[in-house]
Task: structure prediction
Amino acid sequence: MENNDKNNLVPRNTSNPAFNPEFLVEERVLDGEPMTVSGTINKTAISLFLVFIAAAFTWSLAAKGYMDMAHSLTVVSLIVAAVMGFVIIFKRQSPVIQYLVPIYALFEGAFLGGVSFMFETSFPGIVQTAIKATLLCVAVMLILFKTGLVKVTEKFRTGIIMCTATIAGIYLIDLLLSLFGIRVPAINAATPLGIGISLVIVAIASFNLLLDFDFIYEASSRLMPKHIEWYGAFGLMVTIVWLYIEILKLLAKTQRRR
Result:
């Protein structure tokens, strides 16, 4: 690829914090084997498998009655995963992320295991339903992307980014208010409005998958370094985990309405 062609490439914006808008400008073509879409899919599968294994471990602790240990592991894993997530984002140019992402997946899984068990205790069968719904959403979004039925245009991308930023802002406000014992009822209550808001959030999370797919294909077409496959897997995993949690919350609200 000629140098002038590279300079004319415009980075793709995405609402996923792992995929910084300037990423494709920062990461120029390097010597060595380039990343591929199939390679990124394989890394994503490995990462999700590690998430599942770690989640099963925390779940088993709770199921065996070691609730304090499971709770501690859930909280610690959340903190460690959050810190590692930022480290991975800042280290995206380094091949070291091929080691950091699997470790992140383990801590993320340990956190999800505790959260999932909590939901399952209150609403038996909800976790299995949420997993199936998440996989269905991923499959549908991939089909829509691959067939071109939904085009990831600049207007579409900007709209999803704005919606995602709004959701993040609302969650931040809810978190800050919760420190004073106050919760935002519209997003937490099992009311028709609360369920409607959850449906919208699930839809936005699903549409974020389209942006992630677009980023991965774009990065592959630009012959990014091989280790970016792990970074692509990390970003996609972030969205899938978010989608799963939102589906859990939606299902919990609908069951509380019964």
In short: The chain has a mean pLDDT of 86. The radius of gyration is 19 Å.
